Amino acid sequence: MIYTCLTTYMLSTVVLSSCQRNDAILRNDFDGPYADGSYKWAIQTEGGIFHEQRGSVKANPEHSLLVEGQYQYTAPDGQVINLLYKADETGFHPVGDHLPTPPPIPPLIQRALDYLASLPPKDYN
């Protein structure tokens, strides 16, 4: 797990340095990893890139890692991109206004799905 935390930190630093070669790093904090597996870090450049993350080990049978964070930067078109994320044993879960969303389910399809969900389960044995 220490390897994963440090790899994530170093990867972020490399990405920042390759994307913004002339921007000074204003903030570069790293705490941990601690004995309980928790850590947190944050980095910020004068060019407006900000990324912070914290992680901990969940007390479940798998002792899975829970990671939460956010990053922000300005896209080439001038749009400020702000993404919040959570990653756990179920996958990566991003939230951001810039992310595409699926179209709504057409009413007839939704009615069919609701009907199928209302049927009793079949025993195929």
Automatic annotation (TrEMBL):
Gene Ontology CC: one annotated term: chitin-based extracellular matrix
Name listed for the protein in its UniProt record: Uncharacterized protein
Keyword annotations from UniProtKB, A to Z: Cuticle, Signal
PROSITE patterns (alphabetical): CHIT_BIND_RR_1, CHIT_BIND_RR_2
Alphabetical list of InterPro entries matching this protein: CHIT_BIND_RR_consensus, Cuticle_Struct_Prot, Insect_cuticle
Pfam families from the UniProt entry: Chitin_bind_4
GO molecular function: structural constituent of chitin-based larval cuticle
Superkingdom, natural source: Eukaryota
Native source organism of the sequence: Euphydryas editha
